[in-house]
Write a structure and sequence with these properties.
The structure is a single chain. The chain is of the alpha/beta class. It is built from 13 helices and 19 strands. The strands form five sheets. It has a seven-stranded parallel sheet with strand order 3-2-1-4-5-6-11, sandwiched between helices. The protein has a six-stranded antiparallel sheet with strand order 14-19-18-17-16-15. The chain has a two-stranded parallel ribbon with strand order 7-10. Helix 1 crosses helix 5 and helix 2 runs parallel beside helix 3 (120-132). It starts with a strand and ends with a helix.
Length: 472
C-alpha cells in the first residue's frame, strides 16, 4: 500500500516511518524542506519524498494521486501565537488534497478532549479533527494525552524539572490528573489502526493504565532516578508566571510553555479502553515507559526529539533560505589550520554541543545561552538529540544544523538565538586544512554595534575552538 506520511521530520513521524516500512508499505514522506530530511539508508528504497507545505496551496500539487492511506501528524502550537488558525487552514488544505487521491483511510493523532471547557491548544486539536473528518475517505482520530518517550517534550520537561530542582514551588495545576502513554504504544496504535476497518469513522482515546497527577508523575520520575524531591503547590501562581517558570527551568520555548500550561489545567483521561480490545493492545504503565526511555538514552538510540521540530526555534523563515551562506554585507571570522588528523578532527566536529560543550570558553557560551533565554530565545537547553550523530535539521543547543556530511568533512550551523541579524558557523575540511568560519549578517546599526561588542570575545573563543577541534 502507498501511505502518505505528513510530519515525517517530526517526533512521531520519524518513529512511525520505519514501522510502516517494516509492515510492507511504500511511504510517501511529506516534508517542507528535503534538505532537512535524512532517512536511514535502509529505508530509502521504500520511501518517496515530496516537498509540501500545507499552508502554501501552490505546493499541494506535489502530492501524488496514487495514495491508499495517510497520516496527519502536523501540529503548530509552538510556532506562533496564531497557531489555531494555522492548524485549521493546514487541515483544510490537507483534506482537499486527499479528496483528489484514491485514499480510503486517514489517521489523525490529536489530544484527549473530553472536557466541556477546553484549552486553546486542545480546542485547536478538536477543530483540526473536525476539518479532517469532512473528507471523502474513512477517518480515524486517535487522541492522546501526555506522551512519554526519549526525546518527547513531556519527558524532557519532566526530566529538566526533576533533575535540576531538589525543591519545587509549583502552580496548583500540578494536582491535575492525566493518563500518560509511552511513545512505543502510540506508534503501535497508529500503525495497527491503518486500514483496520473496525476503527473507521470513529475517534478513540489512547492512554496507559495509570491515571496520575502531574505531581505524582514528577515524584515517580524522581524515584526511578533515585532522587529525593520535595514539591509544594501554591494557588497564587498565575498562568503567565507558570509559563515563565516552565520556560526558564526547562528546555521548552515560551510559546510551547504557554500552550502547555493552558492545557495542564484540564484533565486528560481516557473515556474508555475499547480500542485496546479492538486492536488487542495493552499499553505499558508510566514506570515502564520511563524505564524504556532511559534504556534508549543510555544506548544512544534516541530516534527523534521534539527539539528537532522546526517550530521549537520560533524561527519564522524557511530554513532552506539559509543553506547558502551570504558574503555581501557580512562580518566574517575565518580561521585556518593545517589538519593534524582528519578522522579524529571530524569526530570532534560531530561531537560538538550538548554535554560536550563548545570546546573552549564554555562558561561564556552558557552566559550567552542564559541571556538568550531572558529575551525569549531558545537558550542552550535543547542540547542534541544523539550523542553520536548529527543530521541536517537537528537542533544543536541554540543552533540548527543546515548541512552535515561526514565524508565531505563539512558541518554548517545556523544560529537560532535572538540576534540583531543572522549568524552561521561552519566547519569544513579542504585538502590538508581545517577551516572554521563564523559569518554574521547584521540587521541595521544595532547589528553592527552587536558585532563589535562581541568581537573581543570572538578573538579567543573561536581561536580556542579550532585548536580544540584540530586534534592529533
Amino acid at each position: 500500500m502507498n501511505v502518505l506520511l505528513t510530519g515525517a521530520t517530526g517526533y512521531i513521524g520519524k518513529r512511525l516511518l520505519p514501522v510502516l516500512v517494516e509492515n510492507g508499505h511504500q511511504v510517501v514522506c511529506c516534508v517542507r524542506d528535503k534538505d532537512r530530511f535524512s532517512p536511514p539508508k535502509s529505508l530509502r528504497d521504500h520511501i518517496d519524498v515530496v516537498e509540501v507545505d500545507f499552508l502554501k496551496e501552490e505546493t499541494l500539487a506535489n502530492i501524488p494521486e496514487d495514495i491508499d492511506g495517510a497520516y496527519y501528524l502536523i501540529h503548530s502550537m509552538s510556532a506562533s501565537s496564531d497557531y489555531a488558525e494555522m492548524e485549521r487552514k493546514s487541515a483544510e488544505n490537507f483534506r482537499e488534497s486527499l479528496n483528489n487521491t484514491k485514499a480510503k483511510h486517514v489517521i489523525y493523532l490529536g489530544g484527549i478532549i473530553n472536557e466541556d471547557e477546553l484549552s486553546k491548544h486542545l480546542s485547536s486539536r478538536k477543530a483540526v479533527e473536525e476539518e479532517l473528518a469532512k473528507g471523502q475517505y474513512h477517518f480515524t482520530a486517535l487522541r492522546a494525552g501526555i506522551i512519554i518517550g526519549s526525546g518527547s517534550a513531556s519527558f524532557e520537561i519532566i526530566r529538566d524539572l526533576v533533575e535540576k530542582l531538589p525543591v519545587m514551588i509549583t502552580p496548583k495545576w500540578l494536582k491535575t490528573r492525566c493518563q500518560p502513554i509511552g511513545i512505543y504504544d502510540v506508534i503501535q496504535f497508529l500503525s495497527q489502526s491503518l486500514f483496520a476497518e473496525q476503527t473507521y469513522d470513529q475517534d478513540f482515546d489512547i492512554g496507559g493504565p495509570d491515571v496520575l497527577t502531574y505531581k505524582e508523575m514528577l515524584l515517580r520520575f524522581a524515584k526511578i532516578r533515585k532522587l529525593k524531591r520535595y514539591i509544594f503547590t501554591v494557588p497564587v501562581m498565575t498562568p503567565r508566571l507558570s509559563s515563565y517558570w516552565l520556560y526558564f527551568v526547562t528546555s521548552t520555548s515560551y510559546n510551547l510553555a504557554k500552550a502547555l500550561v493552558d492545557s495542564m489545567k484540564v484533565e486528560v483521561i481516557c473515556r474508555d479502553r475499547r480500542i485496546n480490545d479492538l486492536l488487542n493492545l495493552e499499553p505499558m504503565n508510566y514506570t515502564e515507559a520511563l524505564e524504556r526511555a532511559f534504556r534508549k538514552i543510555e544506548s544512544n538510540a534516541v530516534v527523534s526529539s521534539w527539539k528537532d521540530a522546526y517550530t521549537s526555534s520560533g524561527f519564522e523563515s524557511d530554513i532552506s533560505d539559509f543553506v547558502n551562506v551570504p558574503t555581501f554585507g557580512c562580518f566574517v571570522d575565518r580561521r585556518v589550520r593545517k589538519l593534524k588528523n582528519r578522522e579524529k578532527t571530524i569526530a570532534k566536529m560531530w561531537a560538538i554541543g550538548g554535554a560536550n560543550g563548545w570546546y573552549y570558553g564554555n562558561w561564556l557560551w552558557k552566559i550567552r545561552g542564559y541571556m538568550d533565554k531572558v529575551v525569549g530565545g531558545v537558550g542552550l537547553r535543547r542540547g542534541r538529540t544523539s550523542a553520536i550523530s548529527i543530521n541536517a535539521g537537528d537542533a544543536l543547543d541554540f543552533w540548527r544544523v543546515l548541512y552535515a556530511k561526514k565524508s565531505e568533512g563539512r558541518l554548517l550551523l545556523l544560529a537560532e538565538m535572538k540576534l540583531p541579524g543572522e549568524a552561521w558557523l561552519e566547519f569544513r575540511i579542504e585538502d590538508d586544512e581545517i577551516i572554521q568560519t563564523a559569518t554574521f549578517r547584521p540587521l541595521g546599526l544595532l547589528g553592527r554595534l552587536y558585532w563589535y561588542a562581541v568581537l573581543p570575545f570572538h578573538g579567543f573563543i573561536f581561536k580556542g575552538m579550532i585548536e580544540a577541534i584540530n586534534v592529533d
